């Protein structure tokens, strides 16, 4: 399952020319010194947003906070299997997350 999710993560990220997938065991995207999308060991994808946008998307998509290695990743939402049915929307969410981290003070 993890390998399939890795392929899916790579497919989604490949549609976003402003950034690329990083990591070999811990899979992520980052920009401006901030990680903003993750693939955890369970094959779950999480995407980072501002607190306001995170709250909106938690309600809109009926999802939850994202966990990685038994820790809640603050600012991230879990991308559910339902959400993954609309890949173009997930690509939009990835780009929105990239724009968010680029608006932050560089690390």
Task: Characterize the structure shown.
- With 107 residues, the protein is an alpha+beta fold.
- It has one domain (2-103): 2-Layer Sandwich (Yope Regulator, Chain: A).
- The protein has helices at residues 2-14, 51-60, 81-84, 87-103; strands at residues 27-31, 34-39, 45-48, 65-68, 71-79.
- Strand 1 (27-31) and strand 2 form a beta hairpin.
- The radius of gyration is 13 Å and the shape is globular.
List the helices and strands and how they pair.
Layout: H1 2-14, E1 27-31, E2 34-39, E3 45-48, H2 51-60, E4 65-68, E5 71-79, H3 81-84, H4 87-103
Antiparallel strand pairs: 1-2, 2-3, 3-5, 4-5
Number of domains in the coordinates?
1
Counting H and I runs of at least 4 residues, what is the number of helices?
4
Fraction in helix:
40-55%
Strand arrangement, major sheet: 1-2-3-5-4
Strand content: 25-35%
Radius of gyration (Å): 13 Å
What is the CATH architecture annotation? 2-Layer Sandwich
The first-level CATH class is given as Alpha Beta
Mean pLDDT: 97
**Largest beta sheet, briefly?**
5 strands, antiparallel
Order of helices and strands: HEEEHEEHH
**Separation of the first and last Cα atoms:** 34 Å
Taking pLDDT < 50 over at least 5 consecutive residues as the criterion, the unreliable ranges are none
Structural class: alpha+beta
Total strands: the figure is 5
CATH domain fold name:
Yope Regulator, Chain: A
Shape: globular
For the record, what is the CATH homologous superfamily label? YgaC/TfoX-N like chaperone
């Amino acid at each position: 399952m993890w390998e399939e999710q890795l392929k899916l993560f790579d497919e989604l990220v490949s549609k976003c020319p402003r950034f690329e997938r990083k990591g070999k065991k811990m899979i992520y995207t980052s920009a401006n010194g901030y990680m903003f999308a993750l693939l955890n060991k369970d094959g779950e994808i999480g995407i980072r947003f501002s607190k306001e946008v995170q709250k909106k998307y938690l309600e809109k998509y009926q999802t939850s906070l994202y966990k990685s290695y038994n820790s809640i990743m603050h600012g991230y939402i879990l991308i559910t299997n339902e959400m993954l049915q609309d890949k173009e929307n997930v690509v939009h969410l990835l780009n929105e997350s990239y724009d968010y981290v680029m608006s932050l003070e560089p690390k």
